Amino acid sequence: MSKITLTIDEQKIQVEEGMTVLEAAREVGIEIPTLCYHPDLALHGACRVCVVENLANNGLIASCVAPVEEGMEISTRSSRARRARSRNVILLLANHPNDCLGCDRNGTCELQNIAYSLGIRHETVEELAGEKRDLPLDNTGPALKRDPNKCILCGRCVRVCEEVQGVSALQFSKRGFDSIVTTAFDLPQSEINCANCGQCATVCPVGAITEISDIEQVWTALEDEEKHVVVQTAPAIQATIGEEFGLEPGTIVTGKLVAALRKLGFDRVFSTEFSADLTIMEEGYEFLDKIQQGKRLPHITSCCPGWVKFAEHNYADLLELVSTAKSPQQMFSTLSKTYYAEKSKLDPKNIFTVAIMPCTAKKFEKEREELRDSGYQDTDAVLTTRELARMIKEIGLNFNDLADEEFDELMGKSSGAATIFGTTGGVTEAALRTVKEKLTGEPLERLNLGLRGIKETVIEIGDLTINVAVASGLANAAKLLEEVRAGKSKYHFIEVMACPHGCVGGGGQPLPVDNEKKDMRAEGLGSIDQRKYVRKSHENPMIEKLYKEYLGDPLGGKSHHLLHTSYQKRDKN
Question: Which one is catalytic: 503, 536, 537, 559?
Answer without folding.
Answer: 503
